[in-house]
């Protein structure tokens, strides 16, 4: 039996995520050209906005485990307020706001430009910086991609128009004139209100697919536009990959020695393929690699899309019924209690100036997931849409913390925050950012512990590195210097001596530090652990548990 290839939760989540898109299919209502207004909103490249976003997890009826209840309360205390978001263009933006968690506010300021993203958190000594060269921002619209801005926006508009014309109006849809406040200014706006239930959302899919299937020319036009916009981008990526992959990797001496000298090809039936192998290089460009001919690409992709839609529509109702029977949870998620309540406010230029959204997602009863629903609420105001906007850049002139430049320990990251700041306390106490634990079996030589004169010793470097401490040799004083990762204080020990110091204060060990015949330095385990802020516990079976908060 044919089936719709959707995973258990993939369908409801995908459909709920598409709700805004489905709404965008509204035809003209009460003189408001909704399609035109929403297409226009998709192609806005500059503007200012502010927003609030909150989440509410509604517990299931009955007894909820205390730990689950505590987690629900913590998540319900989470909210986001954006006081000022500015978009200058697709590659430059800034956001100022605060995250609220457990009644505490955590202000932040971030900005993005072609070089990277800077994030200033209140209480931080220096902003966090993520360079575009690090690759961490690869999914964002930065760097070289910005030069294709006009082409991408043009395609976005055409794609929006294509999808919107095939989508029908939700059952609940009203339009009226109203006065509403935006950024403190009372404006005369057109309010569009809609409510979409989960069962209605599911029912809108089949008509949409049926309508698209009939629009062969529309599909061809869309694929042609896609080709013209993205083919140059893909070719550029292809060229970059050639330069990097073949020059820096395949010409590497190790690669040549191993793959060409040591590998035995005898008996391997290799058929040489001189076709373009872009698809094998991780770009998924197999269709575009076959031919640079636009007509070929358009024809091939149109046929593929039409065949896929035809397969979905074949026995669609029966397959959907079967899916809902086999996965009864979907009847709840996509039922009448899942509701999107949305208000959009348009000005005379058909610009969305204000939005109010509340989404309730009903959830099936479960012992492992004691929730009956999740509610998301978001309110947004916008101004200066399409106007000249200058972002509020984060000040990076006094230096930054580049977390991607080199690996950083928890202590190094934590020391970037003032110890009395709210974010410091959150990271250390609530999120246990510095927590570490080490288990040792004293009866197993693998862990390196030894007992001398009733004192358990451990290799100094092993324990220090387990607790993120740095170790170095001070030739002048003949001391080994261990720097605590969290506090930054120095611990000094001397081989073959009981004398040591912690943060400059002299201490005397019960047994001296020693170096074994293999040149490994051993220190008393309890002394070293406690000097680095950890607690040592010996369990009943003899295992040693070292824990740092």
UniProtKB/TrEMBL annotation:
Tagged with keyword Cell inner membrane: no
Transmembrane segments: none
Keywords: Signal
Residues in the signal sequence: 1-30
Keyword hit for Signal: yes
Gene3D superfamilies: Copper amine oxidase-like, N-terminal domain
InterPro entries in UniProt: Cu_amine_oxidase-like_N, Mao_N_sf
Domain Copper amine oxidase-like N-terminal: 449-542
Record's protein name: Copper amine oxidase-like N-terminal domain-containing protein
Lineage: Bacteria, Bacillati, Bacillota, Bacilli, Bacillales
């Amino acid at each position: 039996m044919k089936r719709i290839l959707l995973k258990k939760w993939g369908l409801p989540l995908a459909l709920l995520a598409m709700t805004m898109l489905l709404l965008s299919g509204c035809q003209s209502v009460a003189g408001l050209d909704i399609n035109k207004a929403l297409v226009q909103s998709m192609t806005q490249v500059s503007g200012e906005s502010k927003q609030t976003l909150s989440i509410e997890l509604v517990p299931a009826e009955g007894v909820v485990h205390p730990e689950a209840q505590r987690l629900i309360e913590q998540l319900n205390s989470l909210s986001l307020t954006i006081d000022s978001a500015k978009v200058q263009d697709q590659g430059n933006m800034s956001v100022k706001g605060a995250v609220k968690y457990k009644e505490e506010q955590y202000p932040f300021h971030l900005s993005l430009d072609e070089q990277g993203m800077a994030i200033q958190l209140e209480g931080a000594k220096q902003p966090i910086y993520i360079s575009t060269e690090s690759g961490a921002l690869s999914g964002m619209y930065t760097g070289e991609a910005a030069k294709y801005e006009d082409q991408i926006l043009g395609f976005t508009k055409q794609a929006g128009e294509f999808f919107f014309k095939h989508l029908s109006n939700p059952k609940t849809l009203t339009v009226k004139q109203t006065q509403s406040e935006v950024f403190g200014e009372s404006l005369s706006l057109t309010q569009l209100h809609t409510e979409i239930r989960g069962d209605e959302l599911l029912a809108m899919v089949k008509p949409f697919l049926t309508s698209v299937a009939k629009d062969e020319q529309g599909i061809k036009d869309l694929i042609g536009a896609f080709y013209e916009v993205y083919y140059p981008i893909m070719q550029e990526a292809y060229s970059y990959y050639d330069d990097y992959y073949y020059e820096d990797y395949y010409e590497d001496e190790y690669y040549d020695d191993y793959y060409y000298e040591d590998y035995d090809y005898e008996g391997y039936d290799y058929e040489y393929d001189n076709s373009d192998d872009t698809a094998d290089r991780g770009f998924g460009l197999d269709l575009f690699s076959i031919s640079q001919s636009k007509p070929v690409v358009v024809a091939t992709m149109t046929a593929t899309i039409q065949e896929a839609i035809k397969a979905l529509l074949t026995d669609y109702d029966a397959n959907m019924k079967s899916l809902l029977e086999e996965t009864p949870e979907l009847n709840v998620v996509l039922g009448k209690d899942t509701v999107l309540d949305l208000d959009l406010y348009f000005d005379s230029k058909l610009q969305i100036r204000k939005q109010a959204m509340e989404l309730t997602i009903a959830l099936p009863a479960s012992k492992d997931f004691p929730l009956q629903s999740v509610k998301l609420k978001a309110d947004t105001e916008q101004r200066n849409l399409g106007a000249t906007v200058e972002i509020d850049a984060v000040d990076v002139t006094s230096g930054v913390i580049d977390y991607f430049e080199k690996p950083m320990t928890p202590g190094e990251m934590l020391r970037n925050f003032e110890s009395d700041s709210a974010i410091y306390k959150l990271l250390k106490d609530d999120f246990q950012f510095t927590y570490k634990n080490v288990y040792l079996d004293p009866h197993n030589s693998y862990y390196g512990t030894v007992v001398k004169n009733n004192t358990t010793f451990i290799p100094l470097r092993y324990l220090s590195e387990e607790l993120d401490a740095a170790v170095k040799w001070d030739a002048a004083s003949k001391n080994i210097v261990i720097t605590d990762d969290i506090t930054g204080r120095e611990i000094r020990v001397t081989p073959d001596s009981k004398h040591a110091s912690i943060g400059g204060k002299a201490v005397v060990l019960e047994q001296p530090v020693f170096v074994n015949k293999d040149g490994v330095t051993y220190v008393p385990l309890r002394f070293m652990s406690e000097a680095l802020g950890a607690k040592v516990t010996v369990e009943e079976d003899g295992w040693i548990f070292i824990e740092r908060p």
